[in-house]
Write a structure and sequence with these properties.
Layout lengths: L2 H30 L7 H19 L2 H25 L4 H24 L31 H9 L4 H19 L1 H11 L1 H6 L4 H27 L11 H11 L4 H20 L4 E2 L2 E2 L2 H18 L19
Antiparallel strand pairs: 1-2
Helix pairs in contact: 1-5, 1-6, 1-9, 1-10, 1-11, 2-3, 2-4, 2-9, 2-10, 3-4, 3-9, 6-7, 6-11, 7-9, 10-11, 10-12, 11-12
Length: 321
């Protein structure tokens, strides 16, 4: 494997890891507040659909991004309403969101566009374009550093750079701000937080809505940057892989980055290396496509160790009177 091939594989890793990273950080906010959210998949899917649909109608990808975030936040609010206000089962609420998004996107897509649940191809200003960073072309011929900067670091859409920026931002919010301290406390001991006069409901709703914003950006990235339109079930299990990455990262922002890059690398390898022959035996393409999911289970089962979630996670809080 030569250096150019390695750079191409790493470039694919970054692109594949971006929606996982955004969804992983989204789940981190929600679960740190004590609200388990397996509806990341559904929120990504509904965001991808609305961002692509609105971008196709208006020809403006930024309006599409806002539409995708808004749709994801509506679904996040529904999850918050069921889990926080009505104290319902958080896992069932998340599953319901996934089913609702999967069905709604197909029905609305077929009704609006008559393309079998797909949206029209996005062109021009209807999708995010790759950005060439300063001096990328000037130093492209410099050995080692030039190709890394021009081919790997440069040449991604703005959503990729936003995703990586959100990692230190999330760390700062959670560990260096009063909001983050309260958020983590709510996920560990909501009764103590309530006794201190802090609203548990407000803190958890804030976390759930932040989760909606980040999954909205993740879904918009799928439809308006990684692809050029919406396809049925295009999130393809990324929300569940993001949950696996979150557990692997043990609910820490920087570890979430490393875990997302690892799973992105597995996805890039599975997509790039197909029809591999070992002697006369050819590895089926379906096996390579399933490889990221297989390795996800293997990693979680054998290499994570004891991951301790927030102590109040998954439990509705009932205010003592």
């Amino acid at each position: 494997m030569d250096f150019a091939t390695i750079l191409q594989l790493l470039d694919s890793t970054v692109r594949s890891a971006t929606p996982l990273l955004l969804a992983c950080l989204a789940g981190l906010y929600s679960e740190r507040s004590g609200i388990f959210d397996i509806g990341l998949e559904g929120k990504m899917l509904i965001s991808a659909f609305f961002s692509a649909s609105v971008a196709a109608f208006t020809g403006n990808v930024w309006i599409g991004l806002l539409a995708g975030i808004a749709a994801s936040m509506v679904f996040a609010a529904l999850h918050g309403l069921a889990s926080i206000t009505f104290r319902g089962n958080q896992l069932i609420s998340g599953v319901a969101i996934n089913f609702l998004a999967a069905g709604m996107t197909v029905v609305l897509g077929d009704s609006w566009f008559q393309l079998g649940g797909r949206t029209p191809q996005l062109v021009g200003d209807g999708r995010f374009r790759d950005i060439t960073l300063p001096f990328a072309e000037a130093i492209a011929d410099v050995p080692l550093i030039g190709p890394i900067y021009s081919d790997l670091i440069s040449g991604h859409s703005i959503l990729v750079y936003m995703a990586f920026f959100f990692v230190p931002l999330t760390w700062w919010v959670l560990y260096r701000t009063r909001f983050g301290l309260r958020l983590r406390a709510v996920g560990e001991n909501p009764a103590a937080v309530d006794t201190a006069g802090i609203s548990v409901v407000r803190a958890r709703y804030s976390a759930v809505l932040i989760c909606g914003v980040l999954t909205g950006i993740a879904g918009a990235y799928l439809a308006t940057s990684l692809a050029a339109g919406f396809n049925k079930d295009m999130s393809a299990g990324r929300g569940f892989i993001a949950l696996a990455a979150l557990i692997f990262a043990k609910w820490r922002p920087w570890y979430a980055l490393y875990a997302s890059l690892l799973f992105g690398l597995l996805d890039a390898v599975g997509a790039r290396y197909q029809n591999i022959a070992i002697g006369e035996f050819v590895i089926p393409v379906q096996f390579m496509q399933a490889l990221p999911y297989i390795l996800t289970v293997v990693i979680l089962a054998g290499f994570v160790g004891k991951a301790i979630p927030p102590r109040a996670g998954g439990e509705p809080y009932v205010k003592e009177r």
